[in-house]
Amino acid sequence: MANSRFSCTQIWVNMCGYFARLRQRLWYFWCVTVKGFFVKKEEQIPPAETYFHKEKIVVLGQMLMNESLPIEKRAQAAKKIGLLVFTGGLPAGKFAAKYMKEVAHLLQQEALAPKIKILLLQSVACWCYLNPLSQKRAKSLQFIPILVRFLEGSFESTIKSQINSYLLLKFWTCYVLSVMTCNNSSYVKELKDDKNLKDCLETMASANWSAWPENFAQVLYYLIGFHKD
């Protein structure tokens, strides 16, 4: 009985710690890690441009929608739209929303390489970061089932680089879902209704997250409330 009480107390302490650190960790991760995926230091986009980078979003949106371009170039355009939204705030997020339908469409193409899907996930993470309107729009575009399929899917290969790429895709998926779920009860409800997700997150939580500032599979597990089951 004493061990049981200690275990419950320890779980509660851990949960409080995750929630207390989540906002700080997400912000730190954006500043230190995610921005490095988007632009080199000498190419960083200055903030507070006319209408929150509207002109640049239009140009990048045209590239994203242009099916004649290589898919990687289109995905790069998508992630740059996300970064412009991240620096531009709510109005920029609303303006960029019309391009996210294409991002959702591309993410559903099974033939896409993990590195392309990761670029698209980075765009979605930027678009939804602390932006309730973008999160609501993402939900209507069915991003939740798209991302959950990434976590629940299996991959058979004996090639280490391919296995690592697939695992990295799942890491980014956990991160994006954490961004979407934080302070959003509608996401929590939909994710908790998924019968297989709990086991998937438990498996992902046991993976090596040492290169990340937080184990986002574990964070998402607590955000959804699976620890209470």
Give a quick set of tags describing it.
229 residues, mainly alpha, 0% strand, globular, disordered N terminus
Structure, described:
The chain has 11 helices and no strands. The N terminus is likely disordered. The protein has 229 residues and is mainly α. It is globular and about 45 Å long. Helix 7 packs antiparallel against helix 8.
The 3D shape can be described as globular
Biggest sheet, in brief? none
- Distance between the ends: 19 Å
The structure class reads mainly alpha
The fraction of residues assigned to DSSP E strands is under 5%
> Stretches where pLDDT falls below 50 for ≥5 residues?
1-9, 37-48
How many helices? 11
What is the mean predicted local confidence, pLDDT? 83
Tell me how many strands there are: 0
Helix content: over 70%
Q: Which H/E pattern describes the elements?
A: HHHHHHHHHHH
The rounded Rg comes to 18 Å
List the helices and strands and how they pair.
Elements: H1 2-38, H2 54-65, H3 71-88, H4 90-107, H5 114-128, H6 132-140, H7 143-152, H8 160-181, H9 185-192, H10 197-205, H11 216-224
In summary, what is this structure?
With 229 residues, the protein is mainly α. Helix content is 73%, strand content 0%.
